[in-house]
Amino acid sequence: MVVTMRETLILTVQEIMSLVSMKKCIELQEKAFKALGMGKTINAPNSWLFVDKHHGYNKLMACFMEGEGADYQAVKTISSYPNNLNHNLPTVLGCLALVDPVTSLPICFMDAAYITSLRTGAGGALATKLLARKNSENVGIIGTGNTAGPTLQGILEIFNGLKRGKVYSRSPERRQAFCSKISREYSIDLKTVESGREAVEGADIVITGTTSPTPILLDEWVEPGMHINAMGVRTEIDPKILKRSRIVGDSLTTAVNDGKSLMAIKANIISSKDVYGDLGDLLLGRKPARENGQEITFFDSSGVAVQDVIVAGYVYEKALHQGMGTKVDMFKGVEQLMNP
After folding, report:
1. Which of 48, 142, 308, 336 is the most exposed place for a label (fewest CB within 10 A)?
2. pTM higher than 0.70 for the full model?
3. Considering 76, 129, 166, 260, which one is annotated as catalytic?
4. Angle between helical axes of 22-37 and 148-158 (0-180°, round to 10)
5. Which CATH architecture has domain 8-115+305-337?
């Protein structure tokens, strides 16, 4: 793709939400993980900027992807600032710059928080389809934010048979609102519970999606046959769980360098060789998924930039087709910076 125009498209959260659905995002994520597995992407290592003075952090990600019809490249920052609630802002904010891979010209700036939550949930849905027992009926959820919710929504889009679930988070109001929202959109019986242990008891599928600095899912709660989607920060999981699990990352490299697997490796509970593979391995048929009904399967989700770039590319192309967004000539006068 070579962009001849110099205008940069600006897309709002509302515009992005109207352009891509969860169902479409799952389809895109499958393509992304296959491209990753086939070596058609370049992903910069995830990096972090911790701003202790303001009690927040920023995660920086970047990727180049060879597409079917066009190549794409993007840079993203996603942040977590809990004190944002005092300023009437979401805790998680982010922005994504989609650039022309030939010239590096920024062709689109868009919100990254919605795309991140959507693609994260879609990745968890794919992992569940591949790794959970096919007769799973019960789901346990710990966390009610922008990670656990989309993960459950993604699972309900493509995994038939889920009938009931139990939801726990620290806020009774948030967990009740979570249940009400999901129940309005999907046919599942959800109820709130008073502890994480109660949420996962008897579950076939477990979803964790928190920013907890200490484990909220303990080893002694995990039963044979469970599938665990570990979608939140790497400190939310008891690392002993990984010792008796088949571990699959969104990316093998990311899992051992930036995931829950890294925490277990640092604790000398597992080694990097104990991480079984990643979603690309399973989707491309290189490795089998679950082997039996008693096996514990563990999806280590840390996030890979290709997940973002494929959604951003789709959103950008669709927005151009529908005439959406605001165009800005950010580089008016750039000729003055060129060598004479």
Report:
1. 336
2. yes
3. 76
4. 90
5. 2-Layer Sandwich (3.30)
